[in-house]
Amino acid sequence: MCENEVVTKQYGEVKVYWGGSLAEQIEFLAKGIADLILTKDNIMSALMAESTHSYKPVIGYPSYSAFFISNTEKPTLSKSYFLDKRIGLLDYPTSRSGHILPKSAFKDLDIDINALDIVYLSSHQALRERLAAGEVDIIASYWSEEDETRFSKNYITPIANNVSGSKWYLKMNNKNTDLACAMQGVINQVAQLRTSSYFDKVDKYWQCESLPYRFVGNENGI
């Protein structure tokens, strides 16, 4: 971002905060601390940050489906099936595919969470590594093209479809189109460098095709 002309013109410096807790997101959004933040639309709506602090979506990741994934069999959505399994979930309460949706599924099946053998891990990649190593029986996550090299598509069971992806939101107290387009361009550039078949696909919310500048004046060029 520091190499972007628009960003360097409008800001003296760029500070990046890396965190994953819901409390941090709430603080940054509720108080309008972040100029640019990656979050989910349900959190943005719950805090009414779009109307309060004029956050606008700049670029986002596509909708996806959430699954229970096994390495040895197709998971069954039944109470008896999960009770004797070791289950990998994300230690990230705002993750829908890795935390919220599987726990909602357990609730729908009338399963007491405390009765389950749940291992909480820090990332989707960590979930996959534990599953491949046989250290957990099932994980809850999204399914990507890369997973087909290690796991079988016959051993996945959908939890939910059309789950909206995370979005980058920019605080726009005025119609700062140049900045919105600059942020969209930078984030898109970073996304294209990712090797993931999911994160390199983005939805752009601003029309930012560059148009040549044209000056109109009198015969004196003024």
How much of the sequence is in beta strands? 15-25%
**Estimated helix fraction:** 25-40%
Number of domains: 2
| Overall geometry | elongated
- Total strand count, please? 9
Distance between the termini: 35 Å
- Spatially, the strands of the biggest sheet line up as 5-4-6-3-7
- Major sheet: size, sense and barrel closure? 5 strands, mixed
- Parts with pLDDT < 50 across at least 5 consecutive residues: 211-222
Order of helices and strands: HHEHHEEHEHEHEEEHE
Average pLDDT reading: 87
Please tally the helical runs, counting DSSP H or I stretches of 4 or more residues: 8
Radius of gyration: 22 Å
SS class: alpha+beta
Description:
The structure is a single chain. This protein has 222 residues and is of the alpha+beta class. It has 2 domains: 108 residues, no CATH class; 99 residues, D-Maltodextrin-Binding Protein, domain 2. The protein has 8 helices and 9 strands. The strands form 2 sheets. Strands 5-4-6-3-7 form a 5-stranded mixed β-sheet, sandwiched between helices.
Keywords:
four-stranded antiparallel β-sheet, alpha+beta, D-Maltodextrin-Binding Protein, domain 2, 222 residues, 2 domains, five-stranded mixed β-sheet
